[in-house]
Amino acid sequence: MLQIFRNKAQSIFIQIIVVVIALVFIFWGVGANMMNKSEAAIVVNGEEISLQQFQQAYDQAFQQLSDQFGGKVPKGMADALGLKDQVVNRLVQQELLRQGGKQMGVQLSAVEIQHAIQAMPQFHKDGAFDVKSYNSILAANRLSPSKFEANIRHDMLAEKTARAINEFSAHASDFEIEEFYGQANEGVSVDFASFSPKDFSSQVSVEEPALAQWFKEAKDNYKKSPEVKLTYLAYDYATIQEKISLDEAAINNYYQSHLNTFRLAEKRHARHILFVVSPGDSDEKQQAQLKKAENVLKKAQADEDFAQLARQFSEGPSKSEGGDLGFFARAEMIPPFADAVFTLKNGDISGIVKTNFGYHIIKLEGIQEAKTKSLDKVREQIALSLQQDQAKALAFQLANNAYEGIIGAGNLQAYTKKHPETPAITTDYFSQQNPPANLKDNKLFLEKAFALGKKELSSLLQTDSGYAVIYVDDINTPATPTLAKVRDRATEDYRNYLANELAKKKAEEFLKGLHEGKETFTTLAEQTGVQTEKTDFLLRQGDSGTFPQTLLEQIFLLSPQKTSPDTIGQADGSYYVYSYIGRNTPSASLTAPEKERYISGILNNKQQMLLSAWLIFQQKNAQIERNQSL
Fold first, then answer.
1. Which of 49, 59, 166, 245 has a Cα-to-Cα distance from 237 of 20 to 30 A?
2. Under DSSP, is residue 12 helix (H, G, I), strand (E, B) or coil?
3. What is the CA radius of gyration of the chain?
4. CA angle 354, 358, 361 (to 5 degrees)
C-alpha cells in the first residue's frame, strides 16, 4: 500500500515533468552563487528561461544521475542519455504549463503559497516552520520574502495546471478495469517454426561471376575508415582539479550557505487499517464501509492490539504485515493521509481518515526527527564540489585565452612556438572507431575532429571532461580495396548473404502456404522438413520461452479469423512463421485490493497520456527558440 500511495501522489509527473516546490531553490538561486548573465537559454512564446536557470537545472539532473552511479558518472553517459535535451524539454514543458494555466484561469491563493512554504523542511526547526529560519535563509541568499513567494507562485502554477488537466481523467469504469485486466492476463498460444540462415549454408554455392557482381554493390563495406592526424590542446577538469587546494573557511561558508541541501526531512513510522472505497462506489457501500471502520476504531481505542486488528480487518495489501507501512516522509504520502500522520503524537491512534483509497485508521509507531547532516559528514563532498566548480571555470579561462592567442598568432603552430608551456598533443593517424586510449570515451571530441577538414582549426570545444582546441594536420582517406585483396572475407560474407536470402525465401513460402489455406501448419511443416514448436499460453509481460520476446506482442494481433501474420517475423538473425492456436482470457474476478490497484494503474496511465498529449500539442504550436550554445 505504501508504494501505491507513492505512485498515486507522483504519477502525474513521472516521465513527463518534475514540478517540485523545492526546485525554487535551484531555479531562483537559493543556496547558489547568483550569476549576472541575462542571456536567454530558451525562449518560449516570448517568455525567457535564462542560461543560469538552465545550468542549475542541468547541474541538478547531472547530480541525480551521479547519485545513481555512486557519485561518479561514467564518461559519455550524460551525452548518451541526451541529458541536455531532457533538461531543455523539461524547462520548456514547465513554461508551457505555466502559460497554459494562465490561459485556463488557474489561480493560486495566498493561503496555498503560505502552506507550500510552511511545508518546506528547509525552514523547519524542531519539526515545525520557523519564521526566523525562513527570513535568515532568504537574507543569506539575497532574496526578499516577496520575491521568494513570487517565485514559489511561478513554480506552483505549473504543478496546479498539471493537476487541473488531469482532473479530466479521474474515473475508471468497470469496462476499463475489465479491459485492463484482460490485457494484462490474457494468454495466446501459437505454433511456430524458425528458419535460421546457418541451417541453409550447406545448400548454397559461391559462383565467381555472382560473387564479383555482389562485391560491386558491397565493396564500400570493405573500405577502411578515414584516419586523421591531430594536434590539439586539452584543458581537462580532472587535471586542473588536482592542483586546486581549498581552505577550511571556503568549505564552511559553502556548508552554511547550503544547509537546505543537507537537510533530511522528518520521517514517521505508521500502521493503518484500510476499508476500501472506490470513487465510483454507491452511497450504500460507502456507508457500510464507514460503519465497519467506526466499529474497528472503537476496538483500537479500547487498547486492542492494533497490528492484530489490521491482520483481521484491513483490506489493504499491508494486511499480512499488521498494516505496517514502515518509515516515510510527508511528501511520500497523499495529502489527507500525510496530514493525519504528521499531526499525531507517538503512539496515538487517528480518527477515521478518508482518502481516494477508502477509510483509514492510523497508528503512529515512531518518529525520525528532521535533521541536518553535520559538516564532518559532508566535508569531502563539499570540497569535491568546490574543486570541480573552480576547475571548470579555470579550464574555460585557460582554454579561451589559448584560443584567442591562436587566432592572434595566425595558427596553432605559431602559438605553441611562442608559448612552449602550452600542453599541445600530437597524435599518429587513427580512425574514429579506433582512437587513442585517452580519447576513446570522448565522443564529442571525436565527432568534432572527424567533421573538420585538412588543415582546419576547430572552435573552442567543451566536452564532458573539459575544453579543447583541435587542429587537423592531415587526413588519410583509404582507397576501396579490390576483390582480390579481401577475397576470403568477401567470400564468407557472400555465402552468409545467400544463406540468409534462402532462409528468408523458405519462411516466406511457408507463410504463403498458410495464407492459401490449403494445408495446416503441421502438414506444411512436414512437407518443408522444418521443425516446429508449440507454446503454452504466453502473457504480454511474461516469459516467452523459446519464442522470441521481440515478436511476443505480434501474436496478440492474431485471432480465429486471422490465424497468421501478414509478414514473416525476424529476430536474432532468424526468420519466424507462427500460427494461432487459441486464446485464454480469464474473467476479472478481483478482490477489493486488486481492484484498487487496477484503478490506480488505469488512472495513472490515463492521466499521463492526457498530460503528455496536451504538452505535445502545446509544443507543436509554440514558438520555441534555443540558444545555439545548447
1. 49
2. coil
3. 32
4. 65
Cα 11 to Cα 173, 275, 559, distances in angstroms: 19, 23, 34
User: What is the three-class DSSP state of 431?
Assistant: strand
**Around Cβ 297, how many Cβ atoms within 10 Å?**
18
Instruction: Residue 242: count other Cβ atoms within 10 Å of its Cβ.
Output: 11
Cell numbers at 60, concatenated? 541538478
Which band of pLDDT confidence, cut at 50, 70 and 90, is reported for residue 331? confident
Q: Kindly tell me the sign of the dihedral angle through the C-alpha atoms of 415, 421, 422, 425.
A: positive
Grid coordinates representing 265 are 526531512
Give the mean pLDDT of 196-214: 93
Closest Cα to residue 542, out of 584, 492, 604, 605? Answer: 584
Nearest to 195 by CA among 524, 600, 628, 425: 524
Question: Read out DSSP for 398-414?
Answer: HHHHHHHHHHHHSSHHH
Rounded-to-10 torsion of CA 196, 202, 207, 211: 30
Axis crossing angle, helix 51-68 with helix 83-104, rounded to the nearest 10? 120
Q: Under a CB-based contact definition with an 8 Å cutoff, are residues 199 and 503 in contact?
A: yes
* Nine-digit cell string for 473: 594536420
What are 596-610's pLDDT values in tens digits?
777 777 777 888 888
H helices present in 191-247, as ranges = 208-218, 237-241
Tens of pLDDT, residues 240-276: 988 888 888 888 888 888 887 788 888 999 999 999 9
Judge whether 402 and 469 are in contact, CB under 8 Å: yes
